[in-house]
Amino acid sequence: MQKVEAVGNWVSKWFTLLVVVVAAFSFFVPSFGTAIAPHTSLLLGVVLFGMGLTLSRKDFARILRRPWPVIAGTVAHYVIMPGIAYLLCLIFHLSGPTAVGVILVGSCPSGTSSNVMAYLAGGDVALDVSIGMLSTLLAPIMLPSLLMLYAGQWVTIPAASLFLGAIRIVLLPVFLGVLVHTIFGDRIAAVNHVLPLVSQTAILLIVCAVFAANHAHLFTAQTALVIPVVILHNLSGYGLGFLFSHLIRLNYPQRKAITFEVGMQDSALGATLAMQYFHPAAAIPSTIFSIWHNISGSTLSSYWRNKDLKKEQSVAAKAVLQHS
């Protein structure tokens, strides 16, 4: 078990690089990813089942005890990211599957990577987890509603299918994970140690499927526009998330948590839904987002961690001088 956990830690450390390697491999050897493509929803179900296994009644009770920051962060997430996505589509004149893909990833719940980034940055991890959980539970309603609002001008949105699909792909695995955790309790603790590796492997396979499905369309002018759009989308989410949390006077650790919760998306869900309900090209923004937000999130968390460390060292140095 320790070896599996060690491998999981190694994969976590080099995850962004592994995403790039897998994407390149699937581009040059698309047959492997093509075979995986029909099973992306199952792979995402594995990820979300793992998320459910880590949740308990205490997590739900925490929302009831401190509802305001959780509700505020969730509302900010579902207002800011889809709105930015729509504006970027207009500014960059995106259309068709590319526009739908950008709005789709903007309409997804927050990504699980944000929990790690909030922890590394010294943010309020409990708040981060609570917002991520609530935004995920609301996904079956918010995803079709936001897509109809923002993307309906480019494609027909299968709202009913998306709603039922989100329940099947998102809520059902999470519910089953929570149920298993409730029944078996601490007896599944050993399983939780391998969950990161299982989830990351599933996400890498989803990335492989997306790049294989789009290998003939990756190097086009429309696709090239996706990279700056994704970068602006993510960074704008961070900035507006932090500004929003500052305006409603949350404390510094809470601002960090909401910054990551707003700016980081469940890109694996976006890619899966794009492959299943739209065009494979609509999955490209989600896949690029998956690579980029891990880079930007790691950079931002490192900046905050180093800034806090320097502040602590400065305070300690002043205290020493005062007592000398």
Write the layout of secondary structure elements.
Blueprint (H helix, E strand, L loop, with lengths): L1 H12 L1 H14 L1 H7 L3 H14 L3 H9 L1 H25 L4 H12 L5 H9 L3 H13 L1 H12 L8 H26 L4 H4 L2 H19 L7 H27 L4 H12 L3 H11 L6 H40 L1
Protein model, in words:
It is a single chain. The chain is an all-alpha fold. Helix content is 82%, strand content 0%. It has 17 helices and no strands. It has helices at residues 2-13, 15-28, 30-36, 40-53, 57-65, 67-91, 96-107, 113-121, 125-137, 139-150, 159-184, 189-192, 195-213, 221-247, 252-263, 267-277, 284-323. The mean pLDDT is 83. Keywords: Membrane, Transmembrane, Transmembrane helix. InterPro entries: BilAc:Na_symport/Acr3 (IPR002657), Bilac:Na_transpt (IPR004710), Na+/solute_symporter_sf (IPR038770). The chain crosses the membrane at residues 12-30, 36-56, 68-93, 99-122, 129-151, 157-182, 194-213, 225-248. This is Bile acid:sodium symporter family protein.
Provide a brief overview of the structure:
The protein is mainly alpha-helical. 82% of the residues lie in helices and 0% in strands.
